[in-house]
Specification:
The structure is a single chain. By secondary structure, the chain is an all-alpha fold. The protein has a single domain, classed as ABC transporter involved in vitamin B12 uptake, BtuC (Orthogonal Bundle), CATH 1.10.3470. 76% of the residues lie in helices and 0% in strands. The longest helix is centred in the N-terminal third of the chain and has 35 residues. The protein starts with 5 loop residues before the first helix and ends with a helix.
Length: 361
């Protein structure tokens, strides 16, 4: 007799009414996701209002170079890629947070725990500070892509180091992964301090603004660059749902349910590295979405990853788009960094979670 998969085993305990409620919840989150994207297309200094947006969208549908109006150009070349990037960044960070929390079985876990964000940031600030002096040929070759490529390489490098440190063991301990990731993040932060100390005033200002997070430099090339990682997440989510539902019961129980625990951990680490590295590459450091979003979903609907992962993606994307809209209009005509908005919203909520966890512990 075949054993049920972890998702099926957990699903038997969820009644049809709960399943229907979750389906309605996903539809509602999808509607919010699309509404946030639609509103984002009308927010900015160029004056595309909600009333004129349908007309401008119609112009975009028939757009060809040299024939579109000014508003159509703004919408197609600035607003649309920026909105798509915000959707990806929020969804990737939220799903990565949910994956990390599931693997560590800790609702306060975060994608930054394994050092991916810090590694990406380290390579990016090094490129900002020293690229012109020490890597002029590479920077000239990559052009506007130099910073995203550096950030992505840093994220993958941190992941490779993490896996190298833990793969010498027969089994990969979750505690070992966590401690190694924290150590890597601390080391990368220290090295970023060294880079900042050695930077001149111009480079120091640039790297400070980048580490605060922003989507001001959104472009279609960046959208295309994130597309493979978005597709990777979409393809692997069904498998991750089953494995993570098994890991919720403990590693021994997951093994007896048919989960290859060690392979699942490696897949989770590399998926997180790709998703978060790409997000950091295009937007800089954007905090708290990865920890707050999945916790909100879990509080409302429980820990079943068949619902948690897609719901986190939809809510995370909506939050990132909404935060980016606030960043555009809060101090217009200037812009606030996106990371400041997410921190102002996420930090109080995170503090509430910590205090609540302490009170219940």
């Amino acid at each position: 007799m075949l054993k049920p998969t972890p998702a099926e085993d957990l699903g038997k305990r969820v009644g049809p009414a709960r399943e229907r409620a979750r389906a309605r919840g996903l539809l509602g989150l999808a509607a919010v996701f699309l509404l946030a994207a639609f509103l984002s297309l009308s927010v900015g200094p160029s004056g595309i209002t909600l009333l004129s947006l349908p007309q401008v969208l119609g112009e975009v549908m028939g757009y060809s170079a040299g024939t579109g109006g000014h508003e159509a150009l703004v919408l197609l070349d600035i607003r649309l890629p920026r909105t798509l990037l915000a959707m990806y960044v929020g969804a990737a960070l939220a799903v990565s947070g949910a994956i990390m929390q599931g693997m560590f079985r800790n609702p306060l876990a975060d994608p930054g725990l394994i050092g991916v964000s810090s590694g990406a940031a380290l390579f990016a600030v090094a490129m900002i500070a020293f690229g012109d002096a020490y890597l002029p040929a590479l920077k000239a070759l990559l052009g506007v892509h130099a910073l995203p490529v550096a950030a992505f390489a840093g994220g993958l490098g941190a992941t490779a180091v993490l896996v190298g440190l833990t793969s010498g063991r027969r089994t990969i301990s979750t505690g070992t992964l966590l401690l190694a990731g924290v150590a890597l993040a601390a080391l990368a932060s220290a090295l970023m301090g060294v880079v900042a100390y050695l930077s001149d005033d111009r480079a120091l200002r640039d790297l400070t603004l980048w580490t605060l997070g922003s989507l001001a430099g959104a472009s279609w090339s960046k959208v295309i660059g994130t597309l493979p990682f978005a597709l990777l997440l979409a393809l692997l989510l069904p498998r991750l749902m089953r494995d993570l539902n098994g890991l919720l019961l403990g590693e021994a129980e997951a093994y007896h349910l048919g989960v290859n625990v060690q392979r699942a951990k490696l897949v989770i680490v590399f998926v997180t590295a790709g998703a978060v590295g790409a997000a950091v590459a295009v937007a800089g450091i954007v905090g708290f979405i990865g920890i707050v979003t999945p916790h909100i979903i879990r509080l409302v609907a429980g820990p079943d990853h068949r619902f948690l992962l897609p719901a986190s993606a939809l809510l995370g994307g909506s939050l990132a788009v909404a935060a980016d809209m606030v960043a555009r209009v809060a101090v217009a005509p200037a812009e606030l960094p996106l990371g400041i908005i997410t921190a102002l919203i996420g930090a109080p909520f995170f503090l509430h979670l910590v205090l609540r966890r302490g009170a219940n512990g």
